């Protein structure tokens, strides 16, 4: 986990910072210590172990009981050595131990490795040894133990929350990738297989006889496919330059007029392909639902920050609520093949229509 790695590094830095503070105390108060030379030896042990711990904990495979136990033993040993360096009478009155805050490094390590329970246990263990040294409960012992308990609990709880958050994020990323791929397949099916099946169903019903039965079967399979493809997003990616104006011009026919700027409109290939596919779906809807003789006009506009493709027709129009009903029934021609494509390019689609007044589909896509 990214946060856990950062926490281990922070513990390593904390050990060296606390060690530096212990060295300063030893140097400035050496006259008050019973055995300054022994205190210097303890500080050397703390320095060596700080280096060893920083290197050992950097490898995830080593963050197990042997290393954690050794860390705690070295920490308690250095703490217990205070009884031979600091005057016991001064310790009983609340004087600082030789390692001072350095002992918190082991508590933090246990909390990161095992969570809040391990952190609390390590804090109580260190607090018990500190109490043994002093012989009685002092404000210093009480405050130090409470701070260790809070640190162990907080860090352990933070690590658990971070682990759960990373698992959720990983699951969400996997789910998003799966649904994007499903959407890509769904759109491909809609633009090819579903339209062919719909055509077979319609033509079979017109011809009659055995063709009608074939059309009925095609209609059943169309419904099955529509229920399978469902809803899913899609995200295109490509950096190749393609002239969107040239792509849209291929849609020109005796019933479709395409207009655009005098110069090419360059876009990454996959984005241009998606816009062209959404435009083709809008024109297909005009042909299928606009009524006999319906004409369409495609207008491509280029602005500094976006491109705009507008598809207008003079067909039968769309009744209020019809698009929502079609999406609920699994007919994804508008919801996914048009709106979905544009939405996943970071754009927006505005559909304006009324019965008998034609339809206007405006697609805005950021450059």
From TrEMBL:
GO molecular function terms attached to this record: kinase activity
Family matches, as Pfam families: DUF5931 (PF19354), HATPase_c (PF02518)
Domain Histidine kinase/HSP90-like ATPase as annotated: residue spans: 277-366
Domain DUF5931, chain residue ranges per copy: 1-167
SUPFAM superfamilies per UniProt: ATPase domain of HSP90 chaperone/DNA topoisomerase II/histidine kinase
Record has Kinase as a keyword: yes
Top-level lineage group: Bacteria
Keywords, ordered alphabetically: Kinase, Membrane, Transferase, Transmembrane, Transmembrane helix, Two-component regulatory system
Residue ranges of the TM segments: 12-31, 37-58, 65-85, 118-135, 141-159
InterPro entries documented for this protein: DUF5931, HATPase_C_sf, HATPase_dom, Sensor_HK_TwoCompSys
Listed PANTHER family: NITRATE/NITRITE SENSOR PROTEIN NARX-RELATED, OXYGEN SENSOR HISTIDINE KINASE NREB
Listed name of the protein: MacS family sensor histidine kinase
Native source organism of the sequence: Hamadaea flava
């Amino acid at each position: 986990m990214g946060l856990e790695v950062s926490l281990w590094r922070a513990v390593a830095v904390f050990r060296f910072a606390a060690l530096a503070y212990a060295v300063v105390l030893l140097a400035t108060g050496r006259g008050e210590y019973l055995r300054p030379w022994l205190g210097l030896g303890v500080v050397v042990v703390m320095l060596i172990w700080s280096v060893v711990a920083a290197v050992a904990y950097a490898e995830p495979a080593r963050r197990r009981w042997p290393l954690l136990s050794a860390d705690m033993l070295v920490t308690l040993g250095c703490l217990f050595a205070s009884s031979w360096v600091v005057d016991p009478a001064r310790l009983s009155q609340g004087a600082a131990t030789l390692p001072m805050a350095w002992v918190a490094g082991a508590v933090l390590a246990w909390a990161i490795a095992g969570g809040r329970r391990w952190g609390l246990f390590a804090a109580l263990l260190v607090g018990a040894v500190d109490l043994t040294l002093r012989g009685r409960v002092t404000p210093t012992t009480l405050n130090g133990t409470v701070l260790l308990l809070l640190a162990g609990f907080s860090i352990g709880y933070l690590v658990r929350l971070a682990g759960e958050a990373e698992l959720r994020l990983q699951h969400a990323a996997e789910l998003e990738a799966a649904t994007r791929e499903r959407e890509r397949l769904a759109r491909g099916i809609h633009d090819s297989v579903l339209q062919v099946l719909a055509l077979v169903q319609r033509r079979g019903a017109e011809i009659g006889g055995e063709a009608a039965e074939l059309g009925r079967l095609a209609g059943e399979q169309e419904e099955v496919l529509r229920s399978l493809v469902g809803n899913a997003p899609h995200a295109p990616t490509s950096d190749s330059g393609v002239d969107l104006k040239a792509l849209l011009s291929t849609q020109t026919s005796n019933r479709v007029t395409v207009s655009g700027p005098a110069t090419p409109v360059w876009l990454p290939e996959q984005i241009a392909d998606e816009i062209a596919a959404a435009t083709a779906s809008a024109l297909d809807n005009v042909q299928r639902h606009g009524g006999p003789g319906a004409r369409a006009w495609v207008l491509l506009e280029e602005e500094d920050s976006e491109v705009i493709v507008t598809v207008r027709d003079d067909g039968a129009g769309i009744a209020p609520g019809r698009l929502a009903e079609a999406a609920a029934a699994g007919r994804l021609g508008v919801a996914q093949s048009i709106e979905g494509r544009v939405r996943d390019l970071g754009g927006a689609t505005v559909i304006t229509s009324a019965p008998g007044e034609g339809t206007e589909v405006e697609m805005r896509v950021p450059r």
